[in-house]
From TrEMBL:
This is Nodulation protein NfeD. The lineage of its organism: Bacteria, Pseudomonadati, Pseudomonadota, Gammaproteobacteria, Pseudomonadales. The keyword Membrane applies. Residues 138-175 are annotated as: Disordered. It comes from the Bacteria. Residues 151-175 have a biased composition (Basic and acidic residues).
Length: 477
């Protein structure tokens, strides 16, 4: 029986209907997902631990940018910091104040602190919150921190004593006063913007005072004391905060917490801007380039040195570096290397080690970014060992008998460069010519005829003339 194939038009219509139904389901799922995302806004949570620096600044800036892109309802900065760089702190506060998304800085976990730069960031945030058993304060700039004054004479009068007590409030030098007054004006402006206790903020800068969480809440330094992020979101729901665009009411009760960790770029920046890492990169970079210059064509030491030196210079650019200290370090390393190429019996080496140690100690400005003394001592010890090795080898070489020079040519062999000929006025049986010895051309005389290319043996050296005799030994040295 004949087979009837289905009509092509019917098959096309069936396929089109299937595609249409699939597109409708896809569109519906996309709309549902979008509505779910809109109904489930998030709270972006950033975690800042340790000293405030360029890596922290980059991390917070990227977190706020991500919150803006995702239309998040809040950015929460979980903070535990001893302080950090003033420039990085100011950039973080600038990003917070300009953020279209409200930012809550939350000092947590229990035992954490928002000291120094952390206090400023707390004051600059739209919401300031703390966990019980945390504290903030000590906001005096590090240049103004009290130093040991055991050698300072006792005040002679009561007025002198009062003046000595008031000195930290004013600053002892013109530059310190400028830094202090600038910091006071800055933190007061942040406090007044968000309606917080400006008088205590000034006291924290001038006197380096501290408050715990409950005291800070009672004195209107912070807005909330919360046990965790969920508690924080519930407590600030419905609060009004001051944004760039004006007053905004927070809706945080139903926000979904989304933790955002630092990416690889931020982690790399955090590593290379560590003062100890930057210091070590500089040492590796310097010696790598020196070794490449002393042994051209090796490539690897030069490439490694250049990369390390560039990374170190980048780190020094964003860190607070004392350039006098950097110059002393470079001078010290140069003197240590000079000892290897132009031995001075330790004078250059010792001077280089002293310059290196002093420069390393004063390299970094600030309490939270010092190069560790064990690292400085370790590198100085390696440099001292290197110098001692050079001096030992130099002394050993000086005790060895001479292995070159005219006095050592007697008994050595050479090759006649031409046919020896008698010369005018020469005694009978005396011949003169030239000889090649160790690649050098010498004047020579002999009591026997010598043919070009014939091996000869040196018997005596007289001035710059060799006395020799022909030999049949082809193995002459």
């Amino acid at each position: 029986m004949p087979t009837h194939l289905p009509d092509n038009r019917a098959m096309l219509a069936f396929a089109a209907s299937l595609i249409g139904v699939g597109m409708l389901f896809l569109l519906a799922s996309l709309m549902t997902s979008t509505q779910a995302q809109q109904s489930q806004r998030s709270a972006i949570v950033l975690t800042v631990e340790g000293a405030i620096g360029p890596a922290t600044m980059d991390y917070v800036a990227r977190g706020i940018e991500q919150a803006e892109e995702e239309q998040a309802g809040l950015v929460v900065i979980r903070m535990d910091t001893p302080g950090g760089l003033m420039e990085s702190m100011r950039m973080i506060i600038r990003d917070i104040l300009a953020s279209p998304v409200p930012v809550a800085t939350y000092v947590t976990p229990a035992g954490a602190r928002a000291a120094s730069a952390g206090t400023y960031i707390l004051y600059g945030s739209h919401i300031a919150a703390m966990t019980p058993a945390t504290h903030l304060g000590s906001a005096t700039p590090v240049q103004m921190s009290p130093m040991p004054n055991a050698d300072k004479p006792e005040p002679a009068t009561e007025s002198d004593a009062k003046e000595s007590e008031d000195e930290p409030r004013r600053g002892s030098t013109a530059m310190e006063r400028k830094v202090l007054e600038d910091s006071v004006a800055y933190i007061r402006s942040l406090a007044e913007r968000h309606g917080r206790n400006a008088d205590w903020a000034e006291e924290a800068v001038r006197e380096a005072v501290n408050l715990n969480a409950q005291q800070a809440l009672e004195r209107n330094v912070v807005d909330i004391v919360a046990t965790d992020v969920d508690d924080l979101l519930q407590q600030i729901n419905g609060r009004s905060v001051v944004m760039v665009s004006g007053s905004q009411t927070l809706e945080t009760a139903n926000l979904v917490i989304k933790q955002v960790d630092p990416n690889w770029r931020t982690r790399l920046l955090s590593v290379i801007t560590n003062p100890n890492i930057a210091f070590f990169l500089m040492i590796i970079g310097f010696y790598g380039i020196i070794f490449e210059l002393s042994n051209p064509g090796q490539l690897f030491p030069g490439i490694l040195g250049a990369v390390c030196l560039i990374l170190a210079l980048f780190a020094f650019q964003v860190l607070s570096v004392n350039y006098a200290g950097l110059a002393l370090i470079i001078l010290g390393l140069a003197l240590i290397m000079a000892e290897a190429f132009a031995p001075s019996f330790g004078i250059l080496g010792v001077g280089g080690i002293v310059a290196f140690i002093i420069g390393s100690v004063i390299l970094m400005d600030g309490t939270h970014q010092q190069v560790s003394l064990p690292m400085i001592g370790g590198i100085a010890a390696v440099a001292a060992g290197f110098m001692l090795w050079i001096l030992t080898r130099l002394a050993r070489f000086r005790r060895l008998p001479a292995t070159s020079g005219i006095e050592k040519m007697v008994g050595r062999g050479g090759i006649a460069a031409d046919n020896f000929q008698p010369w005018a006025g020469a005694p009978p049986g005396h011949y003169r010519g030239h000889v090649q010895v160790s690649g050098e051309r010498w004047n020579a005389v002999s009591n026997q005829p010598v043919q070009a290319g014939q091996p000869v043996l040196i018997e005596k050296v007289e001035g710059l003339t060799l006395h020799l005799k022909p030999t049949d030994d082809q193995r002459v040295p």
